[in-house]
Structure formats: C-alpha cells, structure tokens
Design goal:
Shape: elongated
CATH topology of the largest domain: Cathepsin B, Chain A
CATH superfamily of the largest domain: Cysteine proteinases
Structural class: alpha+beta
Mean pLDDT: 85
Low-confidence stretches: 1-29
Largest sheet: 9 strands, mixed
Number of helices: 11
CATH architecture of the largest domain: Alpha-Beta Complex
Length: 539
C-alpha cells in the first residue's frame, strides 16, 4: 500500500530534525549488533547499499539531494554506514561551560612554553595546499563505533600528528585508554582530553584496544606516549580570512588540530565533493584537521566513523575524510593544538638535563636545555609544573651539568651533578628539590654569586650571563662571606632596593672568595651582578 502524503510529510519533518534512524539495514546487519560504524570485512558500495536501503533512508536522501540541487551545493550524499546510527549518538562533543574563560586560562599557561618551542614546520602557511597524509604519513581512519567518543578520536588524531612531527615516528595511540581513564568524559560526550595525555600519557592501541564502550580503567599497561602542552588557536571570526590564516599557521607549527564542526543530516550522509552546506546551529562533533586546498577553498578533515563514510582519500579506495569549505558549519571553531613530548629513549640530549618524579627516570618529567645564546638555564620554581618537592631522579646530558637546590630560588642544601642519577635518596635531597640550574659542562658550575652565612644562597647572573638585579634577598642580613663563580662585578647593598652602604667586588675567570667588610657583614639585603668577561660561555 502506498504511503499517504501526510505520512510522507511527517517523515520528511522527522528526518530534517535529525536524530531518527530506521533500525533495519538490509544485508549489513542491525546497527545495535555492530561494534563499529562501518561493518568489518564488508566492502562499502554506496550505490549498492542505497539500492537495498529501507524506504525511509531513500526518502531522506531524496530530500537532501533536492536541497543540494536547489542551493547548487558542491557535495554528494549517499547511504553511508554512519546513517545506520542516530547522529546524536555518534556526534558526542560537549562544549564545556565558561569556554571563553577556559581558553584564556589555557593559553596563558601555554604562553611561556610557546616562547621556547621550536620544531621544523612541515609546511608553509602560504602554500596553496597541504595534506598531512601525503607529506608525513598518518594512521588509518579509525572507527569510534556506537559511542559518542569523537572528542577522544579528534584529540588523539592531533596528538598522533604532533608525535610524528616531533619524534619522526607514526604511532597508534589508544583512545580506549583515554575513554576509560581520563575521568571527565564518556560515550555520552566529552571535550579535548589533552590534560590526560600530559598527566598520564597514552598506551598503544595494540596494548589497550578500542572496545566501542566505556570500561574500567586498566592500570596494568605502559603509557609510553606523552604530551607536553596544549592550547587553543585564537581567532573569533570563524570562516573569515584571519581565522583561515590562523588555522593554517597552527597546522604547520603543531601538526593536525582537533577542531569542532556542526554535524548535520547532510554531513551524516556525505560521500564526496566539497561540503558547503553552511547550516546554522552549534558545534556537536570533533574531528582532526589535517590539510587544506585554496583551489577548493576548503579544509581536509579526518573523521572517526570508519571507511564507510566520506570522500575517497588520496590513497586509493580509503574513505573517512571530508573536504569542507572554509567556515562551513563552524568548522574550526575552538580549534586546539597539542605538543607531543620528545621521545628520548637514550636519555637526555647532550645539551639537556631531564628531571623525573619517580626513581629510574619514571613518572612525570621536565626537560631543560641549553640553547644557542644561553650560557645556563635557570629554574627558580619547579612547582609551577606540579613537580616541586617531588623530584627523585635526573638524567644529565653529556654536555651539561646540573645543580639542584632544596628550596625555591636556589636556596638551602644543594647537589651538583655531572652525570645522571636514577635515585636521589642516597643524597638526602629526594623529594625536596624545588629549583635548579643547568649549565655547560665546560664550566665548573653555575655562573653567579654565593652569599654564605648560617645558610647558603645562590644568585645566578641570568640565562644570557649579562647582569641580574636582586632588590630583596631571600635570606636578608645573613651572609658574612661572598663567592663569585666567574668574571663578574658584584655590588652588595645594606638595604633592599640597592640602598644604603655598599661595596663592589670584581672576580676573574676562575672566580674569587671574599669576606664582607664589617659594616656589611650579615647586613646585605640586595645585590647587583654584572658580567665583565670578554666572551660569555655559550653553547
């Protein structure tokens, strides 16, 4: 019996609203019985699937195609494997409250890191096109299954790309690890999960396979892949030229980006061309941005719905990608980058020292390097990375030494290291290190001034070894002796802010010891250090 016109109109309305699907799918198997969006071991032929599709699926596609024709769109739709699942189930992005404040705070935390970050970019933001797959390689398209975990797959897509850029290695990290263990998201939705990748890292996909549902967190696996920092691409005018340029620069600097998009019925059924729907509505789905093409005026995105959806890729018959017009459906809003932690299996590089939270170079870590133009690296407060008083082992590169201090600002008991130590407990400084200095091995120690009294305090000359001012000393009125560790002129003052009685001391290349004059002994409250050597010791 033919369907009545009223019933047909009602069907069209329901389909247009999204969130409805027919539970039958012919020869492909019922969706509730499938573990993945794209059935395993079944070739996806869009045309053949549509010929065998339920009537309501064919009607839905007919409605979409009429809209494409009327609006002269550049993309095609068909019976994708994703259409067997409710869009609300597989588009599981949840935008956090107070996002603007969150973006501001995260980028504030990332600002200092970005000053020091330098990785050879894989592309130029001025190029007409770029495809991460062709340029550097990437893991295959993944399949999130009937779980709203797109947030995890987009996050890992960006992370794996950064790892490839930083460590020159293609890795397959575990979204299931993140889904089970991050604690802040589920199959019902989530947001970028980079904090978990920084704090705990990720297991390999082989060790922690995807299960298409949230399970109990496994503690019995290694997590060799870690991130160092992450942030947002700052641009408010989505789709405007400034936004496009900002995303291109970020893509070249950091690798693939985790981006948001408004996934609609047309997006759900996309099979090729340039997706240019420009539908209103808020973002609800996370994908990885991996390239662009100015000739098409579009981005290349990698989805997580398997190879039964999307455009045929540049690698033969592989699907799972989309060309989407710049700014279409808010693509790129809230874009986020992540920086992978450099993988150094042999330990620190010659010009680096790395400190670790646990013995035997395990757990959370921080790396400090001596770059060209820097005579030493100073760190007055390890606590800013939640490592204060938790440092237990140290790797020291062959070209540097390190001095560890029990207290902040280079005060208290200290330990000089010219080689790695896998356990600091025998040195009685374990879990007490709060500041450190890394210096070139060509020097006998850090460059600066020691004030020696009932306690010893060190005041470094600075990372460029030019000069340094200390208007208010940590332990005022305590020092009776002075040791200058290199060619410097040091002026000590009786009062804070370089006031009161003063005395000047000048040391040569090998440094010198001095007794403070009687009128300043145990009365020094500020000091000024000036480098007077000919050539600063830089690496």
């Amino acid at each position: 019996m033919k369907r009545s016109w009223t019933a047909f109109v009602l069907t069209v309305v329901l389909l247009a609203l999204g969130g409805w699907h027919d539970p039958s799918e012919g020869q492909q198997g019922a969706p509730e019985a499938r573990k993945y969006i794209t059935p395993r071991e079944i070739p996806i032929d869009y045309v053949k699937r549509e010929q065998q599709a339920p009537a309501l699926i064919r009607e839905k596609l007919a409605v979409l195609r009429r809209g494409i024709a009327v609006n002269k769109r550049r993309f095609t739709v068909g019976y994708t494997a994703a259409l067997d699942f409710d869009l609300k189930v597989i588009a599981g992005l949840t935008v956090p409250p107070n996002l603007a404040e969150h973006v501001k705070e995260q980028n504030r935390l990332a600002a200092n890191y970005l000053v020091k970050l330098w990785v050879p970019p894989p592309c130029s933001a001025n190029a007409e096109s770029f495809d991460w797959r062709a340029a550097f390689g990437a893991t295959p398209v993944k399949d999130q299954g009937p779980c709203g975990s797109c947030w995890a797959f987009a996050s890992h897509g960006a992370f794996e790309g950064s790892w490839r850029l930083v460590n020159h290695e293609i890795v397959n990290s575990s979204e299931q690890d993140t889904l089970d263990c991050s604690g802040k998201a589920s199959c019902d939705g989530g947001w970028w999960v980079f904090p978990y990748l920084i704090d705990r890292g990720s297991a390999t996909e082989a060790d922690y396979r995807y299960r298409h549902a949230k399970k109990s967190c496994r503690q019995d696996v290694a997590r060799p892949y870690r991130a160092e920092m992450w942030g947002y691409v700052e641009s408010v005018d989505v789709g405007k030229r400034s936004h496009v340029d900002a995303l291109k620069r970020a893509l070249c600097r950091f690798g693939p980006l985790a981006v948001t998009v408004n996934a609609t019925d047309a997006f759900h059924a996309y099979t090729g061309g340039v997706f240019d729907e420009f539908a209103p509505g808020e973002v609800n789905h996370g994908v990885a941005l991996i390239g662009w093409d100015d000739n098409r005026q579009s981005w290349l995105i990698k989805n997580s719905w398997g190879a039964g959806w999307g455009e045929t890729g540049s690698h033969g018959k592989e699907r799972g990608y989309m060309w989407i017009a710049y700014g279409c459906n808010k693509v790129g809003a809230h874009a986020a980058w992540v920086a992978a932690k450099p993988n150094r299996p042999a330990g620190a590089e010659p010009n680096e020292a790395a400190v670790f939270e646990h013995p035997n170079y395990a757990g959370k870590s921080l790396t400090y390097e001596i770059r060209p133009g820097m005579c030493q690296r100073i760190e007055p407060e390890i606590g800013k990375a939640k490592m204060n008083d938790r440092l237990t082992s140290v790797r020291v590169g062959s070209g540097v030494g390190a001095m560890l201090f029990e207290h902040r600002n280079y005060a208290g008991p200290h330990l000089l290291l010219s080689e790695s130590r896998n356990d600091l407990r025998p040195h009685y400084i374990n879990d007490r290190v709060s500041s450190l200095i890394v210096y070139p091995r060509s020097l006998s120690g850090p460059i600066g001034v020691w004030l020696i009294g009932s306690k010893s305090e060190f005041y470094p000359v600075g990372e460029a070894c030019r000069r340094a001012d200390y208007p208010r000393l940590v332990y005022s009125d305590n020092a009776g002796k002075l040791y200058i560790s290199g060619p410097m002129e040091v002026t000590v003052y009786e009062h804070p802010d370089f006031k009161g009685a003063s005395a000047v001391f000048t040391a040569g290349d090998t440094g010198s010891h001095y007794d403070l004059p009687g009128n300043l002994s145990r009365k020094v409250s500020s000091l000024r250090v000036k480098w007077v050597g000919g050539t600063r010791p830089v690496r």
